[in-house]
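Thread: "does anyone have the structure for this chain?"

Original post by V.I.:
We have the sequence but no experimental structure in hand. Need at least a predicted one for the grant figures.
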Amino acid sequence: MRIRPFLCTAGLVGLALGALSLACGPQAAPATPSPTADPFAVVRATAQAAYAAGRADLDRGQLDQALVELDTAKTNDPDNRPDIQQALNETVQRLQALTPTAGTTGAAGAGSTPAPQRTIVVATVPAVAPAISPVAVASASAVVGLVTWRDPQGRFTIDAPATWPPVDPPQSLVGTPVVEFRDPSARAEVDVAIDTSAHAVSPELYAASLELAMQQQVPGYASEQAVPDSLGGSPSLRRVFTFTQHDAAGHEAQARGLQVVVLKGATPYIISATAPAEQFTAPGFGATFDQMLGSFHFS
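Reply from O.Q.:
Generated one for you, tokens below.
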């Protein structure tokens, strides 16, 4: 608040005799500094603009464009807005419903069977695992004697410990499994799968559909982290999560897993790794997982 200066003198002096007046009242209060600009203003505006465009595309049924716009909104949203997430989830669900599945022939029409949502397969762990001390586990997971495995169709290569032979038949959480490696204790596994039914725009958008499917289908699923990465010289997205496994006897076991999504053209490749929660990182299987992922290359 500014205070108007006022005059006070020892004697009355006519205004005609003095052009000078002495201010003896309180000095003007300093101006209040303007508040600091919102550091998130730009990204918040970007998120809102992308959300508005994506919401409009979604309402018009332009799902591919809506997915791109809403993913941009989610990426730039500093407030974790539920309306953006809800619109993104709705777009993914509608796209999943339109995705053709293997074995479907002919154009969709009257009497056609709707495409089911992506199925997540949760593998079980052995009912009785071999007794292995923590030291033995660390030794078993040490990265020694890596052997290169080559896809019979010439699509990719990946290195695995010589003591981790491929499993026949392979399993994977998502997609069509190509190869699965399992450690001798059967506590950890790494697999490579390909989703030939998908036409992905980016690793981030495909990973968003995986996130939604796993939330709905994987027991005890909880996401920990999702970060952009690079795999085999191509952009990728790495996700880390926890989930609940059941052994053959029906006992629950807490596990952790990671998935790396990388595209070859528009086809998603998913490299997954899982282990008991307490053995997921070093001195458990973490070093082995990192070495195997780092060795992956498209042919």
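V.I.: this helps a lot. The longest strand covers residues 234-246.
O.Q.: and Helices lie at 41-59, 63-76, 82-98, 134-140, 203-217, 286-295.
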